[in-house]
Amino acid sequence: MQASLPLVAGLAALALGGCGLGKQSTLSPAGPVAQAQLSMFYESLAIMAVIFIVVAAVFVYSLIRFRARKTDTELPKQVHGSTALEIAWTLIPMIIIVILSISTVHYAFVLETPATGPDTVQVQVIGHQYWWEFRYPGTGVVTANQVHIPVGRKVNFSLQSADVVHSFWVPELGGKTDLIPGRTNTLWLEASKPGLYDGQCAQLCGPGHAYMKFTVLAQSSAAYHQWLRHMERDTVQVSTPLERAGLALFQQDCATCHTIHGTPFDGKVGPNLTALMQRPTIAAGTLPDTTQGLTAWLHDPPAVKPGAKMPDLGLSRSQIRSLVAFLQTLK
Amino acid sequence: MAAITERVAIAHAEGRTYHGIWAWLATVDHKKIGIMYIYAALFFMAFGGAEALLVRIQLWQPNNHFVSAETFNQLFTMHGVTMIFLVAMPILIGYINAIVPLQIGARDVAFPRMNALSLWLFVLGGLFLYSSWFMGGAPDAGWFNYVPLSGAHYSPGAGVDFYDIGLQITGIGTLMTAINFLVTILNMRAPGMRLLRMPMFTWSALITMLLILFAFPPITVNLILQMMDRLFHANFFNIPLGGNALLWQNLFWIFGHPEVYIVILPAFGIISEIIPAFSRKPLFGYESMALALSVIAFLSFMVWTHHMFADGLGAVVNSIFAITSMLIAVPTGIKIFNWLATLWGGQIRFTTANLYALSFIPLFVIGGISGVMLAMAPADLQYNDSYFVVAHFHYVLFGGTLMGALAGLYYWFPRIWGRLLDERLGRLNFWLVFIGFNVTFFPMHLLGLEGMPRRISTYAAGNGWTTPNQIATVGAFILLIGMLILLYNLIVTFRRKPDLVQDPWDARSLEWSIPSPTPEYNFAQLPLIEDRDAYWVAKRQGRTALEPAEPPGPIHMPSPSLTPFFLALTIVVAGYAALLHVDWLALLAMLAAFWQVGAQLVHEDPGYHVHPEAPAGGAAE
To answer: Which of A308, B9, B92, B190 has CB atoms 3.0–4.6 Å from B266's, for a disulfide?
Structure first.
């Protein structure tokens, strides 16, 4: 078994060929959960590869050796069965299943047991059509579409949905769990090394399903705590007239839906925009978090992201310019 | 309505002969019904295939806008619904109709008129579903149609109503097919045809019908509950009012997993006929093959939550269902090895039918392998709802069911249509389909492992997804060419004169023991069955026909009737009326449907008699 692992890994790498591993690959695990799942993949693939090779060998040999020939005159020997053989190919698969069951049951319990202890991080995840809300219980920190976690610590995600079924999936950190309205599911993940890990909704949730992405930023414990403190800070700095115009416009057009910590704006319908500029993307991974991205988004959200709940507000170019200037102060 | 009742009255005139299209609409002959099932399935396959091609074009490159996200969701939903409910099941039920009565030595099914009703409910129900494209949009919440996305709040259009009502209409037909063939196979076998002498295809049909009988009620309950929610504002799936999202999922998969076996067991049966015929050997391990079918059917009802491993049902539940799911590999493995042992030592002829049947073995093994991998619950959290699953079930449903169905088409074509399909075109058709299939679906394993979720209308560059997607799209077009060759083969074959060869493959089972074209009464005299593979045994003993089990004489036949067609039409009218909220018409149409059913209950069909010419005796030609 063990000896065949590198062989299978080699075959898999060969098959992947020039494609290379992307940013959302289950084959490049960055944490213990994804690592466990990948080891199960290799274990089962190795056993299954042996079975396939046996079947394929018998199959191909039979097709060549036992093909009909012009010289066939007699009927082939009429064999109806063989009790010994039939018992053999009933028992051997059963043994294989027992082997595969061991890791299956073991990891089912390991992955289900949520982490405890003072060191664990709790994050509440709420799925919305089509974006992610992340809350840090006990801190008042709320953010959207990018979740910060400390490296090397188990993170318990509690998963809820505000509308339809979604699924929380960060392939490099571990498998997915669904967010089901009316239930609270849990999932623990851990990042072994710092980095930005891409995640995506994996359960059909409407026309915007493909546009419901998020990122996990795994950072050192110090950086993580610094970020939490930053998010709790009560200041928004507006200085230029353009930014002030944007602030006024935000109050008028955006504040019913969006919250910005440190301002009176506390709408709950759309994503929380506190420290918006720290996120790499906007609209759940639809556009880059740049002047161009924000401008394109404010111009006509549903045109950029199918099914987006944010309407086209009919903003003029100058209004968009001032709003973008204001949003870019949210650092 | 008046027109319909009038037509029904006409249909009641017994002994009538119908001509042209009316002969087809009024037929209760299992052979003609089988042919119509197969035609209709191929017709819907063209649409299901076109939807798949549009999906593949959309996924050709990152950030593509070939179709909108809304259209994309409709396309893959209708592709799935079509291929499962309107292609895979009906084409197999078509073969079961056309072949099983012949294999068991029967003159028709137990309830010929109900059989016609099943057909028309499927055909008209399928057209009803497809009319959604022109009536505000097709269903778009996936073939699994999870709540609350499919509820009125999140899917306010009529698409999901078409799904709920359309699948109820076709589902009634499927349930009646199950009842019909269970009774037929259990009660109408020729004298001496004991259960353990039945051909394996008939065995697979028997077990499939049992699966339908128990699997269709849960989906029907789901569809009715959701129809109540959507049309009459009930709250079974209204989460804020206490509805339960998992209720739908459980009921759906209690149906949905056996459904997978409903469309694979008959393919197992087809393969089990073709491989022995073209190896010139009996099926290896006949009893264990029949037992394996039964065990698979039994297990298929206790694995449903493996579709829900990501639902957070807990480690205990996931472990139990993981193990029961893996257990299915045991009876499936028995079948694979028995087929290999049948080939071993044989004289294998590579006809197109056999090429398709043989290709089934490696393709289904690949699908089975990924199936066992998916059953490992903790690892499945990575594969679930990714393209790995898409690859897996296409290896099972295309590599298994469709390859089996195409094998059956080439194999039984001379029996059903009295002509042999062109073998040269057949081989071209096979190789293009085989290559196109693998080029399309093998890269999807890698896409899934690379983290691509299912059902996304587009994707960003930079995840390594572009190349495998482009390979898959190229493969889909190779498949298209392969299927067009099949269409061309059908056209040239139908333009030729019928060959009317009775037993072109030197085959084993009873359907080949009667003249071609098959007489409307099938068997002039019911045969006496003294062996498994009785026809093959008779041929080896130098006989060309089986001993008759009855003296020659007039044969009682059921009368044709237009009632099934108009009853199905009435039910579809009720469906449209309910969907369009014309409640009085829906009520009236349902009453009319009940009235027609009631009229059938009290009505006695005297039938008619045919007098076949004295057939050749059993001993010699």
So the answer is: B92
- Mean pLDDT across B544-565: 92
State the alpha helices, DSSP H only, in A158-268: 221-232, 241-253
Contact map slice: A 197-226 vs B, CB within 8 A:
198, 200-211
Measured in angstroms, the CA of A30 and the nearest CA of chain B are apart by: 14
Given B318, B319, B459, which is nearest A210 (Cβ)? B459
Q: Is B509 on the interface with A (CB under 8 A)?
A: no
Distance in Å, alpha carbon of A83 to nearest chain B alpha carbon? 8
ipTM surpasses cut 0.85: yes
Amino acid at B185: I
Element (H, E) at A321: helix A317-327
Average pLDDT value for residue range B399-426: 97
Which residues have C-beta within 8 Å of that of residue B77, sequence separation ≥ 6?
B138, B139, B140, B141, B142, B143, B145, B159, B163
Nearest to B382 among A175, A182, A198 (CB): A175
Amino acid found at A270: G
Gap between the Cα atoms of B108 and B105, Å rounded: 9
Percentage, residues of chain A above pLDDT 90? 85
The CA angle B106-B181-B86, to the nearest 5 degrees, is 120
Q: What is the pLDDT of residues B177-234, one digit of tens each?
A: 999 999 999 999 999 999 999 999 999 999 999 999 999 999 999 999 999 999 999 9
pLDDT exceeds cutoff 70 at B528: yes
- Which pTM does this prediction carry? 0.94
Q: Which residue has the tokens 């993170």?
A: A155
| A93 contacts B329? CB cut-off 8 A | yes
For A104, residues 6+ apart whose C-beta sits below 8 A from its C-beta are A40, B319, B322, B323, B326, B375, B376, B377, B378, B379
CATH says A241-327 is which class? mainly beta
- CA gap A179, B480 in Å, rounded: 38
| Residue B6 pLDDT exceeds 50 | no
Q: Which residues in chain B touch residue A18, judged by CB atoms under 8 angstroms apart? A: 467
Say what the pLDDT of residue A1 is: 40
Task: Measure Cα distances from A81 to A63, B99, B197, B279, B340 in Å.
Answer: 19, 26, 15, 15, 12
CA–CA separation, A34 and A40 (whole Å): 10
Window from A29-38, A311-320, B610-619 with minimum mean pLDDT:
B610-619
Question: How many angstroms separate the CA atoms of A69 and A182, rounded?
Answer: 66
CA distances from B78 to B123, B153, B156, B494 (A): 16, 21, 17, 30
Pairing of strands A195-201, A166-170: antiparallel
Does the pLDDT of residue B611 top 90, yes or no?
Answer: no
Taking the CA of residue A246 and the nearest CA in chain B, the distance in Å comes to: 31
Contact B347, B278 (CB under 8 A): no
Please state, for a pLDDT cut of 90, what percent of chain B lies above it. Answer: 92
SS3 A157: strand
Residue A222 has a pLDDT of: 97
Domain ranges across chain A? 1-7+22-64+114-220, 241-327
Cross-chain residue pair B382–A205, CB shorter than 8 Å: no
Fold of A1-7+22-64+114-220: Immunoglobulin-like (2.60.40)
A55 and B365: CB-CB below 8 Å?
Answer: yes
Higher per-residue confidence, B142 vs A118: B142
Taken in order of first residue, the domains within chain B and their CATH numbers are: 2-610 (1.20.210.10)
Q: Give Cα separations from B336 to A85, B340, B547 (angstroms).
A: 13, 6, 34
Tokens of B573: 């009218």
Is A123 strand, coil or helix? strand
Nearest to B345 among A59, A77, A100 (CB): A77
When pLDDT is cut at 50, 70 and 90, the band that residue A2 belongs to is very low
Nearest to B93 by CA among B123, B119, B70, B74: B119
